[in-house]
Specification:
Josephin-2; protease; Cathepsin B, Chain A; six-stranded antiparallel β-sheet; single chain; 6 helices; alpha+beta; EC 3.4.19.12; hydrolase; 207 residues
Length: 207
């Protein structure tokens, strides 16, 4: 895959990687705000999810981060958003990107001890969203955001990412879009057809 162009960070909020806080960075990059969530917020969510656990299963045992998907989903719900786990058996071309607030990509990453790569993996969370006219890769491990491009470029990017190994894609949508599945083309077509039938029925009733 071609190397994507880093872009100037002016006007784009981009948190860089610290410790194992990629989930926190992904959420703040998604909302384009350093105050959207704090580590304390995510730790409190962990406790609420498993209040009686001696070792909390939703974060690193040392409290350094490494939050799981349940924490991300609960955090997004606090902001009024729902999370859709995209079925990789389907092509990303079915997505109605204009109805999706943003994307969180889950990808395996190496453990390192200094310059030594250890023989096991952990998961890394990456935010992708539209800022201005273009979709950006806001990976906290990047020195600066990377330009993806327009909707067609986004589909190409996501299609390539999901073909590469053990990666998962989360769609972030508001409650209305989630309930009616308006993030998916077949559902959007059905909704439009239903609205057309309802409008036609209203016209007949008014005759």
């Amino acid at each position: 895959m071609e190397t994507r162009e880093p872009i100037p960070v002016e006007g784009v909020y981009h948190e860089r990687q610290m410790k194992e806080l990629c989930a926190l960075h992904a959420l703040n990059n998604l909302f384009q705000s350093g105050t959207a969530f704090t580590k304390k917020d995510l730790d409190e969510i962990c406790v609420k999810l498993s209040p009686n656990a001696f070792i909390n299963p939703h974060r690193n045992i040392l409290g350094l981060g490494n939050y799981d998907v349940n924490v991300i989903m609960a955090a997004l719900q606090k902001k009024g958003y729902e999370t859709i786990w995209f079925d990789k058996r389907k092509d990303v071309g079915v997505l109605v990107v204009e109805n999706i607030m943003g994307f969180i990509l889950n990808t395996p990453t190496d453990y390192r001890l200094g310059f030594v790569r250890l023989p096991f993996h952990r998961k890394h969370w990456i935010a992708i969203r539209k800022v201005g006219d273009f979709f950006l890769n806001l990976d906290s491990k990047l020195d600066s955001p990377e330009m993806i491009g327009g909707p067609d470029d986004l589909v190409t990017f996501l299609r390539h990412e999901l073909r590469e190994g053990d990666k998962e894609l989360l769609l972030v949508v508001d409650a209305r879009v989630s309930e009616a599945a308006l993030w998916r083309r077949d559902s959007l077509t059905l909704a439009q057809h239903t609205n057309h039938l309802m409008n036609g029925s209203d016209e007949l009733n008014n005759v």
